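Researcher: I'm preparing a figure for a lab meeting and need a structural model of a single chain. I don't have an experimental structure, so a prediction will have to do for now. The sequence is pasted below. Please return the structure as C-alpha cells so I can convert it later.
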Amino acid sequence: MSEAPDATGGGRRVAVVGAGIVGTCCAIYLKRAGFAVTLIDRDAPGEACSFGNAGSIGLTSYAPYSLPGLWRKIPGMMLDKHSALQVRPGQFPRSFPWFMRFLMAGRMDRVTKIIAARKALLNNAMGAFDPILAEAGAQDLIETRGKMFVYESERSYAGGAFDRQVRRDGGARIEELSGDEAREHEPALGPLIHRAVYLPDLGHCANPLRLTQTLVEHFVRGGGTVLRETVRSIEGATGAQPRVVTETASHEADLVVLAAGIWSPALATRLGVKVLLDSQRGYHMMLPDSGVTLRYPVISVDRNALITPMELGIRVSGIAEHAGITAPPNYALADLVVEHARAIMPGLVADGGEPWSGHRPSTPDSLPVIGRAPNNGSVLLAYGHGHTGLTMSAITGRLISELAAGQTPSLDLAPYRADRF
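Model: Understood. Here is the structure written out cell by cell.
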C-alpha cells in the first residue's frame, strides 16, 4: 500500500532545476505534497548522468570513498594508466582544493561521522522509493537479486575488510565465498577470482533512463509541468520571491529547488553558496550481445569495474576521471573498463559495444548537499550525490518536500548542509 500524499503545499509554486533522477524525485514528492511544480532542464528527463549510471541500488554503501591510509595510494593511482582513478593533465591544480578536502575527510573521526550520515539516508532510501514506484507502476524497474563483490587475491580481500565490517555493523547479510563457489554462482567468472562475497539484499535498476522517464510521465499525469530550457540563473534576494531565468523566459516561483548535478555550482555560486563539487566522470560500455549471462551485478574490487545485467544487455561501468566539465570524453577509458571486465569474465564479448560518459557530481566527503541555501531560504539545494545519486534520489526528494512544506525534516540535515565547506 502506498503512503498517502499530503496537501501541505497549498498550491504554492515550486520550480525544480534539473530533471535527472534526483530532481525528478524532488518534483514528485513536492507534487504529492500539494505544490504546483515545474521541472526545468536543458535536456530531456534522465538524459544526463542519470542515463548512464551502473544501476546499482547501494543500500549498504555506508563507507565513504576517502578512508584512512588512502593518501598513500593516490599518487600511484594517478600515475597508473590502468587505474580506476584518472586525472587529466593540467586538471590537478584545478581539483587540488577538492583533493585536499577529500583526504581530510579520510581521518577516522570524520569517517565515523560520514558513515552515520550516509547510513541515515541509505537506510531510508527504499522506504522513500516504494510509494512513488507503486504510484508510477514502476516497481519492476528495481530488482532485488543481490550483488557479488569479487577479489583477485587474499591481499585485496583483506583490504576490503573495513567496508565489509561497516556493512555488517549496519545489518547487511554477507555470504563469504571461495573462488570456486563464486564461479558456481556466476559461471562467467574466470580463474582470476580468488574470493568473493555475496550480498543477497542489494538491488539494481535494469534501465535507469526508463525509470526516470516513467517517473516523469507519472509526474506529468498528476499535473506537473516539464520545460526544456537552459537555466541561466536563479535570482531573488533573501525574502524576495525567487525566479528562474532561462535563455527564453523568467519563471517566478515561491520556492526553487536546485538539483542540477554537476551544473549546480555555477548557479549556487551566484546565490552566495560556497560549493566544493568536482566531476568524477564515469564511463560505461553497453554490450547488447555480451556472450555471457549474469544472475546479478558483479563488482571487481581490485579494478573498480561493475558488470550489470540490464534490459538491453550487459553494462560495464567504472572509472573516476577528474577532467573538468568542458573537456571532451576520453572514450579510451570506456575500453579500459571493458578490459578490466574481460580480465575477470574472459568470455565477455565487446563487439558492438556503445560507449558513454557522464559527470558524477561528487563532494569530497561523500555526502550530498541537502537543505536550504544559507543566504536564501526560498532556495532549496539537492545536489552532490556522487556515486549514489540513484540510491539516494527518493529520500532526497522526500526531505526536500518536507522542508518546502515547513515541516521538521524526518532526518537531521546538519551533515548535509551547504556551508560545511
